[in-house]
Every structure is written in structure tokens, then in C-alpha cells.
Design brief:
283 residues; alpha+beta; two-stranded antiparallel sheet
Length: 283
């Protein structure tokens, strides 16, 4: 493997980084712009900064490379703080929910798995059953959300057409995103119901804390299974494969990091539940 790419991969091993290997590669790599580009493209700059800082190696890398990584990490911290503020706001809204739900992916990973500054999210994901989509939509619309997309060039929310709403439900197993401007930031929430075909997946949700509030999430085993199933879906949809959504390193790091944080009992329960829910292919 090319040395610059080898270093990129070593700098994503957040919970089991290899110091000797990293030290060797820091001496051998010369194409720092390429390493930086791949880390930024895969949203791994924060992870690389975290590892180099933990090892006391930041002073050993190229100055411009270090400056850029530091900026990425500081940006991640700022973005994560805003994300948690939005999550706290959503927790207040979903206290009114009269249906089962579970927040997914970044909401759980950034609060329960990763140290600060590594995992950022652009939006929020919530899982509900197909039967409760209308109830969830009403809850969000009543709280000032709009279904549509954010136009970054115009800094405005464009309302979705009825055709777009129907197409998303039929073809993607999720709704058109719900958006709202909150404290100067756009909150984007995706409602996912594609797992409605897996009976019982929303039974026995668990609570996790967000500041002074709490949200419902999946059990650790189901949370991991969802990560696998979501990535599998992205790798199976042609349009998503075309734009490379199935190849972002941070999505593989989510799975990798999750496993490294769990012990033997988790593995045993995970294997049982994968079989129970018929998710062998995806997982």
C-alpha cells in the first residue's frame, strides 16, 4: 500500500492506534497534501488530530499539516456543541411523542461512543414505525419544522413538493428531511421507517442523556445492527454508490469503534439478535 494512504488508515484507528507504525510513517511520508486531503474528504481530520495529540506527535508533523488538522479538530468541537444543542431541543419536542421512536447514528455515537471532537453529524436521524409516520410528521410541523431542503447558496429552506415527499417514502424508506432554523443553525431531521419490515425492532428502546434531557435510542446491539444495515443500504442503492456514499471512512470507523468499545457479552448478544432479526446478510 502507498505510504500516504497507509498513514491515512493508521490515523483513523481511534481506539487502538499503533504508535510504532505511525512514527515510522511520519518519517517516510512526503505527500502531506494528499494525506490531508483524504482525511478531510473522509471526515477523519478530528480523529487524526486526536491520535497525534494523544501520542505527543503533533510537533513531529509538517507545520501546515498540523495547522490544518488543528483547525479541523476545533471546527469539530464547535460543530458538535451546536449539534448537542439541537439534540437537546429535539429531546424537548419528542417528550410530546405518543409513539415509539429511537434516535440513531450520530445522536448516540457522538454522546456515548466517541471522545469530543471526532464524530460530527450534519443531521439527526430518528427511527419510527411506518404506521406512525403521520403522527411524527404532525409533531414536527406543529413545532415549526418544514419538509424540504436547505439551499446553502440562498441560505433558505425550500419546501418539498408532494411528488418529492411521495417519491422519498416509496424509494428510500425515509421521509424528505424536516428542517427548522434554531438559534441561527439549520436543524435537519430525517425520519426513517425502512426497518419497519423488521418486526419488534422498536421494542425495548433505552434512554440516553443529552444535557438535562433524555432521548430514546436502540439497545447497543440494535444500534450496531442499524449501522450495518444503513451502510448496506447505501452500498445497494445505485444513485448513492455513484456519489460514493458507501465508501466514506467515518461510516466504517463507526462500526469499528463500536465493536472495540464492547466486551464479550456484547458480542454474544449481538450474534443472537442478528439471527433473531434475520440480518445476517447486512451485518
Amino acid at each position: 500500500m502507498e505510504q500516504s494512504m497507509e498513514l491515512v488508515l493508521e490515523l483513523t484507528r481511534v481506539f487502538n492506534y499503533r504508535e510504532n507504525c505511525i512514527q515510522r510513517l511520519l518519517q517516510e511520508v512526503s505527500d502531506w497534501p494528499k494525506v490531508l486531503g483524504w482525511l478531510a474528504y473522509n471526515r477523519m481530520g478530528g480523529a487524526a488530530f486526536y491520535i497525534l495529540q494523544k501520542l505527543g506527535l503533533l510537533s513531529k508533523v509538517n507545520r501546515e499539516f498540523r495547522t490544518a488538522l488543528t483547525a479541523m479538530f476545533q471546527y469539530n468541537l464547535s460543530k458538535q456543541e451546536l449539534f448537542l444543542q439541537g439534540l437537546s431541543y429535539l429531546s424537548q419536542i419528542f417528550q410530546q411523542a405518543e409513539f415509539p421512536y429511537a434516535f440513531l447514528k450520530g445522536a448516540y455515537l457522538s454522546t456515548c461512543i466517541y471522545p469530543p471532537g471526532i464524530r460530527t453529524s450534519n443531521d439527526y436521524d430518528v427511527l419510527i414505525s411506518k404506521d406512525n409516520v403521520a403522527k411524527c410528521e404532525k409533531l414536527l410541523l406543529d413545532n415549526g419544522f418544514t419538509q424540504g431542503k436547505y439551499l446553502i447558496d440562498k441560505d433558505e429552506i425550500q419546501k418539498a413538493t408532494r411528488a418529492e415527499i411521495i417519491s422519498s417514502r416509496m424509494n428510500r424508506g425515509e421521509t424528505v428531511p424536516f428542517l427548522k432554523r434554531y438559534q441561527g443553525k439549520i436543524i435537519e431531521l430525517d425520519i426513517n421507517f425502512s426497518l419497519d419490515m423488521v418486526p419488534g425492532f422498536l421494542i425495548d428502546t433505552i434512554g440516553f442523556r443529552v444535557g438535562q434531557f433524555s432521548l430514546q435510542g436502540l439497545s447497543e446491539e440494535k444500534c450496531f445492527m442499524y449501522l450495518c444495515m444503513h451502510l448496506f443500504k447505501e452500498a445497494s442503492v445505485y444513485n448513492w454508490v455513484k456519489i460514493g456514499r458507501d465508501l466514506s471512512l467515518y461510516k466504517f470507523l463507526d462500526i469499528y469503534a463500536f465493536l472495540l468499545q464492547k466486551g464479550k457479552s456484547f458480542w454474544e448478544n449481538l450474534a443472537e439478535q442478528i439471527l433473531q432479526y434475520g440480518c445476517e446478510r447486512e451485518c
